[in-house]
Amino acid sequence: MITFEGVTKRYPDGTVALDDVSLECPTGRITVFVGTSGGGKTTALRTINRMVEPTAGRVLIDGGDVRERKPAELRRGIGYVIQHAGLFPHRTIEDNIATVPYLLRWNKKKARAAAHELMERVGLDPSMARRYPFQLSGGQQQRVGVARALAADPPIMLMDEPFSAVDPVVRAELQDEFLRLQAELHKTIVFVTHDIDEAIKLGDRVAVFQTGGKLVQVDAPEDLLAHPADDFVAGFIGQNRGIRTLGFAETGGLRLSGDAVFAASADAADAAGLDWVLVVDADRRPLGWARPADETGPLAEARLAPVGATFRAGADSVRVALDAAVLSPAGLAVGVDEAGAVVGTAGGADLLAVPTHGPAHHRADRAADRPAGAPEPADAPAKGGAGD
Ligand SMILES: Nc1ncnc2c1ncn2[C@@H]1O[C@H](COP(=O)(O)OP(=O)(O)OP(=O)(O)O)[C@@H](O)[C@H]1O
To answer: Which residue puts its alpha carbon closest to atom 29 of ligand 1?
Structure first.
């Protein structure tokens, strides 16, 4: 646990970068500092590894004041990743990653072996080990930056806008891999960004800073979206707050119906009275949507509209499911299990009935729980003998 106790930083020119900030960053979790430019996020981050000394207050790691530790020794247990990766241009990728192991006087072979293993972990092909940073894309360089920070397996990682310098697609990939990595590693991470969407996606807790170094709110992202502390936070979060809250509502408790799911071997007459039916194959994989009123004979021969987007029942959020419902010709979201077999469907009203303000879940737990599988379908999932 990293604890800020009444931390103030006033620079000699009178600028107050942090104003009496108290906050806890729990062990094994991602705490994101977000806020307006000049809000003191970077300053706050740097008080943790003593790159900045507070004017008042203290920063504690597991109860011990960081000022009681020598900066060099302190920093060996704290990985640091910055924007543009900050790689040494004249060193190869493997030697960049092995920077701290070399400082710790590991032998070269062991340090490089660790570097290669880390390259795989962060999604880099180890064949790039002998390249120089300029021979890598921006996204690849950021991965090297993350690998370098992880090299000595520090329990704490400080990350200052690590994904800000790459395009949105690469950025989303880096974020996803970062969450996957964290689900394995459970580091105590403090992550600075000016992007509220990134904060909400990555943070187990999100701390919002306002100009003048004031900490305005610290909460789980779903609570931040649902209950912004004041107009500043509400304005900072921006639009579509309601829809974005659905990104935290889970589909695990959703009752999916099998009423509109029919095997390809079933006859259109069996589905009489239904507007649209989802036709599935013998493995209950979705084939497409049919209109029974327009068809005669087996649904296998029906004209099918594309299935479109599906959601993983119990794994994807209500927001993903709602998106699938809106895009479906039938207005129904198709829930599938991990094998891609249809569990059932849900309409927009069913999806909106899912509670969104349940107990806050921590992202790391959720990622670890994810393969838990699909829920029991409420009804017999496929009529007409699918899978028989
Ligand atoms: N060495 C310094 N001397 C004087 N003022 C400083 C110094 N470093 C930072 N500041 C000021 O402290 C305030 C907080 O800066 P900080 O970099 O922590 O903000 P930030 O929230 O990280 O901003 P950004 O998102 O723009 O990076 C700013 O007003 C900045 O100009």
So the answer is: 38
CA of 35 to the centre of ligand 1 (A): 12
Q: Which atom of ligand 1 is nearest to the CA of 192?
A: 22
d(CA 104, CA 115): 14
Residues 359-366 have a mean pLDDT of 41
What are the sequence ranges of the domains in the chain? 2-248, 261-372
CA-to-CA separations, 184 to 84, 331, 346, 360, in angstroms, rounded? 25, 37, 33, 21
Distances (CA, A) of 4 to 44, 99, 158, 381: 9, 29, 15, 53
Q: What is the pLDDT of residues 313-348, one digit of tens each?
A: 998 989 999 999 998 999 999 999 999 999 999 998
CATH topology of domain 2-248: Rossmann fold (3.40.50)
Q: Is 211 in the pocket of ligand 1 (CB under 6 A)?
A: no
Residue nearest to ligand 1 atom 28, measured at CA: 38
The answer to which of 80-84, 188-192, 204-208, 372-376 has the lowest mean pLDDT is: 372-376
How many angstroms is it from 183 CA to the middle of ligand 1?
32
Fold assignment, 261-372: CBS-domain (3.10.580)
User: Does ligand 1 come within 6 angstroms of the Cβ of 11?
Assistant: yes
Say whether 261-372 and 2-248 share the same fold: no
- Tens of pLDDT, residues 19-35: 999 999 999 999 999 99
ipTM score: 0.93
